[in-house]
Amino acid sequence: MAGEFVRNVRVFTLNCWGIPFSFASKNRFERFNAIGDHLKEEAYDIVVLEEVWSYSDFKKIREKTKAVLPHSYYFHSGFIGAGICIFTKGEIIDTVIHRYSLNGYAHKVQHGDWFGGKCIGLCVVDYAGLRFNVYATHLHAQYSVVNDEYCSHRVTQAFETAQFIRATRHTADVCVLAGDLNLEPTHVGYKLISCHGLLKDAWLEKENKSDGQDSGFTCDTMHNTYSSGNSPVRIDHIMYSSRPTVSVRCLDVTMPLDTIPGHHMSYSDHEAVLAVLNISLSDSISNDSSFSTEERISSLQEASLILEEGMRKVQRNRYYFGGLCVVLALLMILTVDLTFPYGTQSLMVAVRIGLAAALGYSFWMAVVESRKEIVSMRGARAGMRVAKESALRAIKMNDRNWQNNGI
What we know:
Order of helices and strands: EHEHEEEEEHEHEHEEEHH
Number of helices: 7
Helix content: 25-40%
Radius of gyration: 24 Å
Strand order of the largest sheet: 3-4-2-1-12-11
Shape: globular
Largest sheet: 6 strands, mixed
Number of strands: 12
C-alpha cells in the first residue's frame, strides 16, 4: 500500500517587498494585486511569502486565493510584524513561532530590521494524508559585503533556525523550509541550516538540470525592473527533509515570475522560487547518507569563531556608548547654570531634551542591549559546542562499530 502513494507537491516562495511606505516600496498596490492573481491562477500546494509587512496586504491576498488556498496564517511579531505568512491547500492544525534573540539595532533606522520581529514560523499542515512541517523565515539582511556588521546576528539566527527545525521535526512526514535567508550557499549560516538542520537544498537537488536557469539567482538580477543586476545572488531558498519511510525527490526548481502581464514591472525586487517535490511512501527505511558529519562540525566551528569575534565587537561598542554617556552627561551638566539670551530659551530646552534622550539611549545600549547581545551570542556558542561534541561522539561510535565489525 505504501509503495502506491506518489504525489507532486508544488512549493512557492517570494519576498514580496511590501514595505508599507510608497517611497520605500514602489508600485506596492499593483504588485500585491498581481501576486494575488498569480497565486489564484496557479493554485500551488504550499506558498510562503516574506516582507508582507502590512496585515491588510495579507488579507487582500487571502481574499483573492481563498478558493484555491483555503488555509493561511500570518505570523505576528515585533513592532511592525514578522512579515511572513503561509498559504496552503492542506489544513493548518498547529502553529509555533520562535522570535530570534538578535535582530539588528534600533538606531539603524535606515535598515529597519530591528522593527520587524524577525522569526521562524512553523505551520503544521495536514495534506494528502501526510503531516507537513512548513517553516517560513526571513533572516537579517546584509547591507555591505565589505563591512558586514550584522554577520554575527545572521549566524545566530541561522543556528536558531537549525535548532528550531531539529527540535520540532520529529512528528512530521515532510519538512519544508522556505524564505529569504539572506545567505548565499557559501556562507556559514547557509551551511548551518543545511548541514546542522539536515535539510536538502531544492535547487541543488533538482533532477531537471536543463531548464536554462543555471544560476538560480534570486536577488539583484539583470531582468528585474527594480534592481541593477550588478551583483546577483541566490539568497531565497526552498529546503526539505523527510522521515526515513518517506522519499522526497526534487523534480524541478524554477523562477516562475517574469514581469506583470500588461505592465513593465516585476512582481518584487526578488525573484520567486518554485520547487516541485515528488513524494512517495516506502515500506523500507532509507538511510540518507547525503549529510556529512564532518561538514556539520566544520560549520559549527566556523560559526563559533564568528560569534567570538562578534562578542569582541559588542564589547567595543559598549565602550563607545559608555564614553558617549559621559560626554552627553557633561554637556548637560555644563548647561545647567548657563543663562541664554531672550528668545533662545525654548531652543535650549529642546537641545537639552535631545541630549537627555541621547544619554538615555546610549545608557540603554551600553548597559542593557550590549549585555543582551553578548548573552545571546554566548548562548548560541554554548549550543554549538554541545552540537559539535555530539557529532564527534557519533563519529567515534561509528568508528568503533566499524572496527568491531571488521574484527
